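User: Could you go from structure to sequence for me? I need the amino acid at each position, not a summary. Structure tokens:
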């Protein structure tokens, strides 16, 4: 995703870790000079192996890298996660002594120390992630149903057997899709905060809104594939009855056409005025509405009966 500057930071750290036996970087369609940089680097460092592919998505890139690996255990790291100096060592420690298939590392989001306007998507993302990690600590059995895949290791044969790409390309929540398949396969997972990487998250409010819509769309598909996990995936799960009614009404097509632009404008103006509480809460409510709207819209489409030719029966 054209993140050459981040890769330039990560590669030396990973190569300096004594547990790194090989470093495969899959360039998924980026045309910012990343491939050329890594090819020059690989001439001096035989452990570094850059691989180019036309843009095929996150799951396909991971699959390509795992297939190319010559090691029994692979660590998969997103390009916007800057590893700690011993990240690979910490992953390897588990696989050497524990009866575990997957180790999920910790990747706290870098939140600016001095808040500025427009940083609310990162603040909300960081809050959600930390809440998820507290869930990992308190209830390890729920990790697969809330899987974040930017920093994890897995035994190579397990990864290839399950498939990192999967049967469907969601456009979002491919990590959760992978986690649910791992759960079905009976894989064992551990969460370790010492396997540390720092997530470099940055989104505009408008891009954040589009991501939320993709999240709702993907959640609807996952509920159809994994109905037993509806409680974990459905956006209304865990909400009070009153809040469910309010969100359901607000996410309707007509009302949403008013509420979403109003909330986005409110969040933007509050950011300009440094009214951080209002900026955050307006964005949070907007996210809930957009998430539920996309989820309900895709659910309705999935529920529409179709003929064998694929046309909708009216």
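Assistant: Here is the amino acid at each position, in order:
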């Amino acid at each position: 995703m054209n993140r050459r500057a981040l890769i330039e930071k990560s590669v030396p750290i990973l190569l300096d870790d004594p547990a790194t036996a090989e470093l495969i970087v899959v360039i998924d369609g980026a045309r910012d000079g990343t491939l050329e940089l890594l090819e020059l680097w690989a001439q001096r460092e035989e452990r570094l192996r850059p691989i180019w592919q036309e843009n095929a998505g996150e799951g396909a890139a991971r699959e390509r890298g795992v297939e190319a690996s010559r090691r029994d255990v692979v660590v998969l790291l997103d390009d916007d996660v800057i590893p700690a100096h011993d990240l690979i060592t910490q992953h390897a420690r588990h696989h050497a002594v524990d009866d575990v298939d997957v180790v999920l590392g910790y990747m706290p989001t870098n939140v600016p120390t001095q808040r500025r306007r427009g940083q609310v998507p990162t603040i909300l993302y960081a809050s959600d992630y930390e809440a998820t990690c507290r869930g990992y600590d308190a209830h390890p059995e729920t990790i697969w149903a809330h899987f974040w895949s930017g920093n994890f290791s897995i035994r190579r044969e397990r990864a290839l057997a399950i498939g990192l790409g999967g049967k469907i390309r969601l456009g979002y929540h491919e990590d959760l899709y992978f986690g649910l398949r791992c759960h079905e396969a009976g894989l064992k997972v551990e969460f370790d905060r010492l396997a540390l990487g720092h997530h470099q998250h940055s989104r505009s409010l408008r891009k954040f809104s589009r991501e939320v819509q993709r999240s709702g769309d993907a959640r609807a598909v996952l509920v159809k594939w994994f109905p037993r996990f509806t409680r974990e995936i459905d956006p209304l799960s865990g909400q009070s009855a009153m809040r469910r009614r309010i969100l359901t009404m607000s996410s309707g097509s007509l009302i949403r056409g008013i509420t979403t632009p109003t909330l986005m404008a409110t969040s933007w103006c509050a950011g300009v005025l440094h009214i951080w509480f209002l900026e955050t809460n307006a964005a949070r409510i907007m996210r809930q509405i957009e998430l539920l709207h996309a989820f309900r819209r895709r659910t309705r489409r999935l529920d529409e009966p179709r003929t064998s030719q694929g046309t909708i029966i009216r």
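One structural detail worth keeping in mind: The longest strand covers residues 189-199.
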